[in-house]
Amino acid sequence: MENIMHYSPILIAIMIFLIQQRIVVTPEQLEKKHREIIEDVEEKFVTIHSFKDLKEQFSEMKDKIDKIYDCIMTNNIIN
């Protein structure tokens, strides 16, 4: 116990420094930053579900365009 009392002013100074420099954060600060990151991600990126839906729509559009192209080419060959 005597050793702890001897080093306690140094330990308090170190703890104050760590808190002031924001090296150690509280759970509330961590939760707040987490919410900010989630909001930024939602604004800048799409969900995987939305991406897959869009990819499927592009695939359908490509198929339709290929069919239209085939029809045009078939009609050009006949005429």
Shape: rod-shaped
Mean pLDDT: 88
> Describe the biggest sheet?
none
- Total strand count, please? 0
Give structural notes.
The protein has 3 helices and no strands. It is an all-alpha fold and 79 residues long. The longest helix has 31 residues, at 48-78. The mean pLDDT is 88.
Topology (elements, then pairings):
Layout: H1 2-20, H2 27-44, H3 48-78
Task: Quickly describe the structure.
By secondary structure, the protein is mainly α.
Task: Kindly list the characteristics that best describe this protein.
mainly alpha, 79 residues
